[in-house]
């Protein structure tokens, strides 16, 4: 997947997703306390699981983005990948705000459904350039599908 290491692209590929994660964390600092107070559906993990899972997912997203940035694919193909990646990252960030800051649980479920569609598009776009980069986004897709189940459950129970 990585023919030569491009340190600048690698750092930028990590700064973008983790920068968004950091900003999200700042804006929703009491999110896990609020989550603990919500009635949750069966299979809901304890709040301590979320930061661990998201750290792994953001790491995989960063490596995946680097695989595209460091590829020899034509710039128009890469630009499309960056656009879709940016859109899904924005929807990811906004979901956290909608759900935790504004408490819009039902609307958040709809938003999360759009995010899942964008992740699927992201995987398909990345696949055209780097299968490995596409495969690294599959855990993110699966986690967001699970999050949709949790989101719908919380919307119904609260």
Automatic annotation (TrEMBL):
It comes from the Bacteria. It is a multi-pass membrane protein. One of its GO terms (biological process) is tetrapyrrole metabolic process. It is found in: Membrane. CDD domains: TSPO_MBR. One of its GO terms (cellular component) is membrane. The keyword Cell division does not apply. InterPro entries: TspO/MBR-related_sf (IPR038330), TspO_MBR (IPR004307). The chain crosses the membrane at residues 47-68, 80-102, 108-127, 134-157. Keywords: Membrane, Transmembrane, Transmembrane helix. Its main location: membrane. Belongs to the TspO/BZRP family. This is TspO and MBR. It comes from Monoglobus pectinilyticus.
């Amino acid at each position: 997947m990585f023919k030569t290491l491009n340190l600048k692209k690698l750092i930028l590929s990590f700064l973008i997703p983790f920068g968004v994660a950091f900003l999200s964390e700042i804006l929703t600092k009491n999110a896990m306390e609020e989550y603990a107070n919500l009635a949750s559906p069966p299979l809901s993990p304890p709040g301590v699981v979320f930061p661990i899972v998201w750290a792994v997912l953001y790491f995989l997203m960063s490596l995946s983005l680097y695989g595209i940035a460091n590829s020899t694919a034509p710039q128009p193909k890469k630009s499309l990948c960056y656009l879709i990646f940016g859109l899904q990252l924005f929807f990811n960030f906004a979901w956290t705000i909608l759900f935790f800051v504004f408490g819009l649980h039902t609307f958040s479920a709809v938003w999360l459904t759009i995010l899942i569609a964008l992740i699927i598009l992201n995987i398909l776009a990345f696949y055209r350039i780097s299968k490995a980069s596409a495969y690294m986004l599959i855990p993110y897709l699966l986690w967001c599908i699970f999050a949709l189940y949790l989101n719908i459950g919380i919307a119904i129970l609260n």
